[in-house]
Design goal:
Distance between the termini: 82 Å
Shape: elongated
Radius of gyration: 22 Å
Low-confidence stretches: 22-28
Largest sheet: 4 strands, antiparallel
Strand order of the largest sheet: 1-2-6-4
Strand content: 35-45%
Number of helices: 1
Helix content: 10-25%
Number of strands: 8
CATH topology of the largest domain: Immunoglobulin-like
Length: 159
């Protein structure tokens, strides 16, 4: 009976060790890249468009390619089924071309610009959360940043 208990105990230790190693590898893969906002637009809320400068840094030892995606959540719309408040464009740093993917060399960083424009039918007085996401190609590894965007109501002076 003692041998059986010892065998079960060793099996348990091996399983725990394997689980910890696997988790450490997953955590390491999450550190392969960093997505961050370098400079937020300093334009007044009523001015459009707004340009935000972002960067993606490749911390890995290999070249990585990312899909760049965006979405908008209207914090005033609990259904959020058809948000047409903002138009988000992801552009090259020099603003010359739209991009939907980016390739970053090992240990390098690349900058890109997010252009946020108020839609003609935007709901006035709404707070919107723009989510910019970078997803590693052929992987579930993704990171995102959020940019808040307020669309003021010019008919409300606040006094």
């Amino acid at each position: 009976m003692k041998n059986n208990s010892t065998l079960i105990f060793f099996f348990f230790l091996i399983t725990c060790s394997f689980s910890l190693i696997t988790q450490a590898q997953e955590d390491k893969s999450n550190d392969d890249f960093i997505l961050k906002v370098i400079k937020y637009s300093h334009e007044e809320n009523s001015n459009i468009p707004h340009f935000h400068l972002l960067s993606i840094t490749n911390n890995s030892n290999r070249e990585l390619t990312f899909d760049l995606l965006s979405s908008v959540d209207d914090s005033n719309d609990s259904n959020n089924k058809n948000n047409q408040n903002l138009i988000i464009e992801i552009l090259s740093e020099d603003l010359l071309r739209n991009i939907n993917s980016i390739t970053v060399s090992s240990k390098e960083s690349l900058k890109f610009t997010v252009k946020i424009t108020k839609h003609a039918k935007a709901r006035l007085g709404s707070m919107n959360i723009c989510k910019i996401m970078a997803q590693l190609i052929n992987s579930n590894n993704k990171k995102s940043v959020k940019i808040n965007s307020y669309i003021p109501n010019p008919n409300f002076s606040g006094h």
